[in-house]
Amino acid sequence: MASFNFDTLAQIYDATRGYPEEVACQIAQKLVRLAGKPEQKKWLEVGIGTGRVAIPLAEQGLYCTGIDISTNMLDRLEQKLKQRGWQAVAYPWGTLEDERVASIPRVVRYEHPELVAALRVALADMTAIPFESGSFDVLLAIHVFHLVDGWQQAVRECLRVLRPGGVFLRAWDESVPSDISKIAETFWRMVEERGGKKSLQALEQKPQVDAFLEELGWHSEEDSSFTWVQATTPRQELESYLQRQWSSLRRIPDEIFQSVIGPLEEWAYSYYGEGIDTVRKCEERFVVSRSVWKS
């Protein structure tokens, strides 16, 4: 199966997966603490998307780089940078010593006039990262390896571009189970009853990546202490499934998906009744795994 490209979801990505501003800042601060002393550290985020984490990270006064395969996601990232006062700077690919001479389809560079910070973004696949070996101090991958065809090669590439003593941070969003979780449970049960298969979720793949890193000589530690509350209703959650807003839903065969949405909607209205528009405060968790070379 090909790696998932978010071009079709770019316009709704921040609305469905973005963090509140204060949460994004706290996540960035948490990641900086886990990486160690921030002075002169160079960061690379693979699957940077719309910059929901990379932008607040860079605004901590860091030099950040990101790659992504989605043109539309990078377009959205540029829009957000300009809205926040970042300014584009132009010089050709290969100018910096860590940039491999081979050409790439697109690179954009931004600096902030009031911050000692920079953000460089390249259109590239994480299975072939276009930077020299040992170029970065911190590698960040958020909710991404389960979407990559050939994730083992992507992990190898991430480790290749890390400097000796570098830190590999993987992170995920996780919803604490609540009565709204019933929608996802019921949806996937209906999919499986019709011969479909539940898509692999990021946290479900985590043990595989942990084991692979262990084989390569890396030790992983989990830190899941950061939580926040998000207000939503059962109807909003239901609509996210009916509108196919999640990447896992786009991988289901159309005929199976279409056969499920009617029964799912009927079930939801019956199960939640008049409470379908009642706001629930759902706890969300940002899970981070910090990996370092075993000395």
From TrEMBL:
Keywords: Methyltransferase, Transferase. SUPFAM superfamilies: S-adenosyl-L-methionine-dependent methyltransferases. One of its GO terms (molecular function) is S-adenosylmethionine-dependent methyltransferase activity. Residues 44-169 form the Methyltransferase type domain. Pfam families: Methyltransf_11. InterPro entries: Methyltransf_11, SAM-dependent_MTases_sf. One of its GO terms (biological process) is methylation. This is Methyltransferase family protein.
